[in-house]
Amino acid sequence: MGWMYVLFAAIIEVIWVLGLRFSVNALEWTGTIIAIILSFYFIIKACEVLPSGTVYAVFTGSGAAVIVVIDMIFFQGNFSIFQLLFISLIIFGVIGIKLTSDEPSENNQDTVAGGR
Amino acid sequence: MYWIYLVIASFGEIFGVASINLYLKKKTGYRLLLIVLTFSFGFLFLRLAMKGIPLGTAYAVWTGLGAAGAVIMGILFFKESADWKRIAFLFCIIIGAVGLKIIE
User: Fold this and answer.
1) φ, ψ of residue B27 in degrees (nearest 5)
2) B29 Cα to chain A: minimum distance (Å)
3) In the structure, what pLDDT confidence band is assigned to residue B77 with cuts at 50, 70 and 90?
4) A67 to chain B: closest CA residue
5) Is the ipTM of this complex over 0.90?
6) What pTM value is reported for the model?
């Protein structure tokens, strides 16, 4: 069930990103805010059963990739090969950082990086 | 200007995550309000940034700088590990973000 929560969170994340960009009326804004809250909720639920660094790495990596693809297909986003390369580098870095956040360290009780 | 909005939005994310940590230590209404305010602030500026920066770029940079900032803060203030792997990944994010801005 933990990975289902991650999947829901990632899908809803994409929805609120689109909402944040394109919302113009009260109804759309309400939907966007609900989506933001829901994505937080599913991430927290996922972190209850899975390591938070792993959850965030998968969630944010897939979210960022899907948003680039949607941008290219639906919104005529023209990404040059260098832009895609730099975006991949960011996603790679985020996934790496989140995964290393799961490694146990004895003086570490609170993990900021594992937060959202 | 849009890139400045994007950096400000990332700070919203960083302080948002920090306030979640504060809240988890001591669950008070004031700290919960702080979470809502910091994230709202971040989302507002992300919206502004998205008006001038493509969605895919804006989201990747926002989430990347947010993660990088959280790690830097974790290392500085919460005694998280600062081994070479984490520093290397940190540089990947920063190079990616700066690169996107330069070739824009």
Assistant:
1) -85, 90
2) 17
3) confident
4) B56
5) no
6) 0.85
